[in-house]
Write a structure and sequence with these properties.
- The chain has about 525 residues and is of the alpha/beta class.
- Among the domains are: about 5-15 and about 25-180, Rossmann fold; about 410-515, ANL, C-terminal domain (GMP Synthetase, Chain A, domain 3).
- The protein has 17 helices and 27 strands.
- β26 (about 445-455), α16 and β27 form a beta-alpha-beta unit.
- The radius of gyration is 23 Å and the shape is globular.
């Protein structure tokens, strides 16, 4: 379903609110999206054209999405922390014909203006600057009755670029109407693995430009529930919103769970969490000790799924099943798993290799990058694809991830997976965040290097480094223990929870080369 259906049935139900704000009803969401759809159509946008949004977490994200999707357009969300050059790259690469920007990001917008192609429509809400038109005034002139033709559009989001330049994930339009029961929907997955329904309140703590935060929020609106969006992540505010807004479901990433667990126990205890029925996590490998601690705190409501922006496959594991198989990300609910070696040969149960999903009839591609698209496909099976993760399956087809192939360390011919080491080290009370990667070594090929962000107020000393290394040694095989540990005030981590390990490692390699 889409907002028009809920606007007829439950016009005053809140569709979205940001923080503790008054919110937008389904009636308002439907009317605003219709007006924007009419405005964009009046400007000449056609089915298959693109619309981009550049904004902080904001309620208007949703009317922009629904306007595009009920018009047959592609909708692209640009990372709100993008530089003007980065935003211009995505505008050009996506071929978006319209840019809708918030006044809150006007500094980025000013730098972006001279980089935009001629003919791009530029709208701004919550205020306006030279070079943009006032969004609110444009909507005011349009009618709120739906267009006769409403072909379903698509999200076209960009990968985070943690191992290279971001690439748009693009799928063909179906040609179906937005309200056609046969049209694929974000909510198809939610209905399979959660108890979310029209009475649910879903809390979004992450950035809306990220695939998981945006897709799941939209799925909740397809079902008719209420979406509550955090303006920005803060662990104590997260707990307060669960209590004050009666949140029933939410989704976090492992770094958020670590931050929650490192709150003072008295702070956690003062918030009533009884409304919470389900907490999902995804986006990055979750340390086993962190998951155990979350289950001890919240009980068996901490479920997990695994997928990527590409959506080529999905696995899911409920909390009770995870307790029987700690570390697993579950069995497939979309697609069939194949574990393959570097030559594409399928490996036996229990062996580690590249994770492929077989999914007939669903094809994704990286926009304007045929080489990357080809590299994601299995050499012999055109319906098998990978996003570069490595893992193994057990005898019951439960998937266990090791790490991304690009991050694997090879030391003395032995494969070492940084995620396991990071999962151990982050449990030290003085560690706020940690990155582990390989650096060149003349004898071993690579050695294990760690960079730690200390907990606030903790001094980065040689004694602390030795203590953390000893802590790691107690839980890891000797060859996995970092040889060198450095400290950094803050690690380069995206709001989505992904660590920019590529940037960090490149800085170290650059520093080394400058000394030679």
């Amino acid at each position: 379903m889409y907002p028009a259906v809920h606007a007829r049935k439950h016009p005053e139900r809140i569709a979205v609110r940001v923080g503790g704000g008054p919110g937008v009803t389904y009636k308002e969401l439907d009317e605003r999206s219709v007006k924007l759809a009419r405005e964009l159509r009046w400007r000449g946008l056609q089915v298959g054209d693109g619309v981009a949004v550049l904004a902080e977490n904001h309620e208007r994200y949703f009317e922009i999405y629904w306007a595009a999707v009920r018009s047959g357009y592609y909708i692209t969300a640009i990372n709100r922390h993008s530089t003007p050059d980065e935003a211009a790259y995505i505008m050009a690469d996506s071929g978006s014909k319209a840019l809708i920007c918030s006044h809150g990001l006007r500094e980025t917008a000013v730098g972006l203006l001279p980089l935009l192609k001629d003919g791009v429509h530029r709208l701004m809400f919550d205020g306006v600057i030279d070079g943009f038109e006032c969004y609110e005034n444009l909507l005011e002139r349009q009618r709120a009755d739906s267009l006769v033709e409403e072909p379903r559009g698509q999200l076209m989001l960009y990968s985070s670029g943690t191992t290279g330049q971001p690439k748009g994930v693009k799928r063909a339009l179906t040609g179906l109407r937005v309200d056609d029961p046969a049209a694929p929907r974000n909510s198809d997955l939610i209905r399979k693995i959660t108890s979310i329904d029209q009475d649910s309140v879903y809390l979004v703590p992450g950035p809306l430009y990220h695939a998981a935060a945006f897709n799941w929020s939209l799925a909740v609106q397809e079902i008719g529930g209420t979406v509550v969006v955090m303006p920005k992540w803060d662990p104590e505010h997260f707990l307060a919103l669960i209590e004050n807004q009666g949140v029933t479901h939410t989704q976090v990433v492992p770094t958020m769970m670590v931050r929650l667990l490192k709150l003072d126990p008295e702070v956690r205890a003062r918030h009533d969490m009884s409304s919470l029925k389900g907490l999902l996590h995804s986006a990055a490998p979750c340390p086993v000790d962190v998951k155990h601690a979350m289950l001890d705190w919240l009980g068996p409501i901490v479920d997990e799924y695994y997928t990527g922006t590409e959506g080529n496959g999905v696995t899911f594991i409920a909390a009770r099943d995870w307790q029987q198989r700690p570390g697993s990300v579950g069995r497939p609910v979309i697609g069939i798993i194949h574990i393959c070696d570097d030559d594409g040969q399928e490996l036996a149960t229990g062996e580690v290799g590249t994770v492929y999903f077989e999914r007939a009839g669903t094809v994704f591609g990286y926009h304007n990058d045929a080489a990357k698209t080809a590299g994601a496909m299995h050499p012999d099976h055109p319906t098998w694809s990978t996003i570069g993760d490595m893992g193994r399956v057990d005898e019951d087809n439960y998937l266990f991830l090791t790490d991304r192939k690009a991050f694997m360390i090879i030391s003395g011919g032995v494969n070492i997976y940084p995620a396991e080491i990071e999962g151990r080290m982050v449990m030290h009370p003085a560690v706020a965040d940690v990155a582990v990667f390989g650096l060149p070594d003349a004898d071993m090929g690579e050695y294990v290097h760690a960079v730690v962000q200390p907990t606030a107020g903790v001094a980065a000393t040689a004694e602390l480094a030795a203590e953390i290394i000893d802590f790691a040694r107690d839980g890891l095989s000797r060859y996995k223990v970092p040889r060198v540990l450095d400290f950094l005030d803050e690690l380069p981590r995206l709001e989505s929870g992904k660590l920019r390990k590529d940037v960090l490692r490149a800085d170290y390699l650059s520093a080394r080369s400058s000394l030679t």
